[in-house]
Sequence to fold (497 residues):
Amino acid sequence: MTTDPVSLAGSQDDAARELAAFPADTPIDSFSRLGLAEPLARAVAEMGYESMTPIQAQAIPVVLTGRDVMGAAQTGTGKTAAFSLPLLQRLLKHENTSTSPARHPVRALVLLPTRELADQVAQQVKLYAKYTSLRSAVVFGGMDMKPQTLELKRGVEVLVATPGRLLDHIEAKNAVLNQVEYVVLDEADRMLDIGFLPDLQRILSYLPKQRTTLLFSATFSPEIKRLANSYLNDPVTIEVARPNETASTVEQHFYSVLDDDKRRALRQIVRQRGITQAFVFVNSKLGCARLARSLERDGLRTTALHGDKSQDERLKALAAFKAGEVDLLVATDVAARGLDIKDVPAVFNFDVPFNAEDYVHRIGRTGRAGASGLAVTFVSATDGRLVADLEKLLKKKVELEAVEFEEDRPRGRINDGRRTWRDHGETGDPRDLLDAPRDRRPPRPAPAPRDPFFEKPYEPPTVTEPPPWESAARSPASRVSANIKTKRKLPALFRSS
Ligand code: AMP
Fold:
């Protein structure tokens, strides 16, 4: 596809014509290339964004022309702005300050798989639209329908929703979708995984045929391609690299440590480094609960985030962590996915992740926005294969360090005859393991079980009010992703060969 805005200059489309009108020396990733309306440009400037991310630079010009888009991009790439900004720009022609609901029909619909994602996207849309008169709202399950109904009845131009709850509102005649011009299927692969296809099909059947459809998905599986074939019209395909790089502001350490010593090592590093808050990632739900309990017994204010916790407990755990009432949040990968908690001073990988890509996601929680972060990974005797996977992904050799316990043990303790991960290879190089005969390799653990909670769009209502952090103002710095290269704020991401 072409992403050069100049090539759109011949289009009859107003937005495309505006796009071509920028000074020749404007950097390729500058927002000023877009010719965004002043209220939107002001909102972007206020967010502190200095340049467009790759998905933004590629998608925004295309969406401004009204074409359908099939985008391969994950959370953290800046894709929310990539669809929200052009969509808001195109909707500005409908902007009005009338109090009549009829003057504010739903013009854009953004569908997401989970309440957390819906909430995060809705918050971003509100920020981008704050200097316009365009209204936005979010509806998702597990919450009282009434406040959502009141908001819908007042009229909103941009509606962010999870599919099930949206259908409830459609059935209750709270949402009328016959004037929708834009529909965004965000995290489409996850929506299909959860089994939302029939709901999506129903919702799409309520929309006008003449519309722009944008589909974003982490992968283009055959199912996603089928969905795109059925509902997208001659889409432009945009793919951006998976965010597999780690921010160079993150100080990464890998410690060779016995399973039994991991907790002690964690306590010691927290103490020595004066760490105030950290995420501790584990590979299993059971391990998560157990570890949180023992760290709590050790005197660290700890809470666990995993699938066996009730929704209320999870909301409380997150709120407490955000409020600084909890020092350590022990979490499984799936429980932590999609949660907008960033800028944590340190991340511990209590277990080496089963999937190397999860390492990048885990440590992406720290070292954001130019702040330095610490990522500590404990590597035990059976982790050789996982570390080798990690090295392949990071294109970098992992240097293992020993933990020097300062408490009761003599220095020679780590060579006490028990096997450590290094013992698996003659040279200590994890690749030795790969060269070993197949039957001598440690078995690869099964993939982490998916935590159903965050995959689920709605659950029985347990809270009637949004948790306190949802309304808390956020600093612009916390909105900058580790996967995003800004000019000054974030140092270059490393990609060593
Ligand atoms: P998303 O992938 O849309 O969830 O965005 C991830 C994070 O990146 C959000 O916190 C955004 O506020 C932030 N972000 C989006 N666009 C940019 C940009 N151009 N420069 C810096 N940060 C951005």
Notes: Residues 49, 52-53, 56, 75-81, 479-481, 484, 486 surround adenosine monophosphate (CB under 6 Å).
